[in-house]
Write a structure and sequence with these properties.
238 residues; Rossmann fold; five-stranded parallel sheet; four-stranded antiparallel sheet; 7 helices; globular; disordered C terminus; binds adenosine-5'-triphosphate; Heme exporter protein A; ABC_transporter-like_CS; ATP-binding
Length: 238
């Protein structure tokens, strides 16, 4: 499986957020998506999830492309977003059961996901009783229920304690070991991932015409390859 973005651009409310975003990830790879606040990481993940159109460029996943194959694309890609999207009136188990039903997934995955994220004790509680970290774990547990090959993760470890962060890192490593791909927007070290995709920043005619050579460990074709200390990334993007 290859997951590729080619010169993607994004506009929000008519304003250019980024352009020239390219990367390629293959089965087994987990990558950190890096860039300052407002650089468009969440917007990119929504585009890659097939939930919002790109202003330019294309993405491909094996034989599928965006735009074009939206429906089949969305069946292969899971987005764990910023917002927990937990149904507060449902129980913890009910949230995952509804997710399984929605995705036509076997109900047995619900118990496995509850166990994996340490939620069994809370399973019959209404989800609105959950703490922020518990809600986050519930949101992440849906990844195991839907079992899509590509995981798009938007700051997935926010609100998680160290133990839960370690569990999640292990879950992602296992997903990749089974041939999956993960791309995680993050400002911290997540404890998984062998590649970095860097947001290209808002172009002011100052960026390089061609992406620079990739340092070791960069995703093939990932734009930029700059560290967060790079002044291009830490300057005023607005
Ligand atoms: N619904 C919206 N309408 C208009 N502009 C938006 C909308 N949502 C986000 N934006 C703008 O798009 C830009 C990119 O936002 P986005 O949330 O993708 O950035 P981010 O890199 O994920 O930021 P952070 O690190 O703070 O989470 C920002 O300038 C933001 O103000």
């Amino acid at each position: 499986m290859e997951f590729r973005a080619e010169t993607l651009a994004c506009r929000r409310a008519g304003r250019l957020v980024f352009e020239g975003l390219s990367f390629a990830l293959v089965s087994g790879q987990a990558a950190a998506l890096r860039g300052p606040n407002g650089s468009g990481k969440s917007s990119l993940l929504r585009i890659l999830a097939g939930l919002a159109p790109a202003a330019a460029g294309r993405a491909s996943l094996d034989g599928l492309t965006l735009p074009g194959d939206g429906e089949a694309w969305r069946e292969r890609v899971a987005l764990a977003g910023h917002l927990d999207a937990v149904k507060p009136a449902f129980t913890v188990r009910g949230n995952l059961a509804a997710w399984a039903a929605f995705h036509g997934a076997p109900a047995a995955r619900v118990d496995a996901a509850l166990e994996r994220f340490g939620l069994e004790r809370l399973a019959e509680d209404p989800a609105h009783w959950c703490s922020a970290g518990q809600k986050r774990r519930l949101g992440l547990a849906r990844l195991l229920v839907a079992a899509r090959p590509v995981w798009l993760l938007d700051e997935p470890t926010v609100s998680l304690d160290a133990a839960s962060t370690a569990v999640f890192a292990q879950v992602v490593r296992e997903h990749c070991a089974a041939g999956g791909i993960a791309l995680a927007a993050t400002h911290v070290d997540l404890g998984f991932g062998d590649a970095v995709v860097t947001m290209p920043g808002r172009p002011q005619g100052t960026g390089p015409a061609e992406p620079p050579a990739q340092p070791a460990g960069e995703a093939a074709g990932a734009s930029g390859g700059k560290s967060l200390d790079d002044p291009f990334l830490t300057g005023d993007w607005r």
